Amino acid sequence: MHLAFIKHPRDFDVVADVAVRFDDLEDLINANNALLSKKDKGQTYSLGAELGNIAGEGQMRWSVASSADVNQVADQLVAAFKEIGLPYLDRAATPEAHTSY
């Protein structure tokens, strides 16, 4: 799971996504990519998406306006990961899972 932070003047939003990396695929795709360092090539992902888009709801954001919001937002992020992210990762975990497309 990755988190992105969108800063606003008085608060910030958190957006979460999950991704899967198939090493053989990424090595093949990036073998001749001179724009990426070796380290960057090891940090690419094969497929993934933002949790709200996986759920078919559009982007989900969690707002943090003060330190009092952090625990609640963290709990909501964990719940969304368990409800949306983990099932997605389970379905997408192997290249063989995508042969029916």
Structure description:
With 101 residues, the protein is an alpha+beta fold. 39% of the residues lie in helices and 22% in strands. Strands 1, 2, 3 and 4 form a four-stranded antiparallel beta sheet that branches. It is globular and about 45 Å long.
The number of distinct structural domains comes to 1
Order of helices and strands: EEHHEHEH
Gyration radius, rounded: 16 Å
The rough form would be described as: globular
For the secondary structure, the number of strands is 4
The residue-averaged pLDDT reads: 92
Low-pLDDT residue spans: none
* Major pleated sheet: 4 strands, antiparallel
The helix content is: 25-40%
Secondary structural class: alpha+beta
In whole angstroms, how far apart are the ends?
A: 24 Å
Q: Count the helices. How many?
A: 4
Strand content: 15-25%
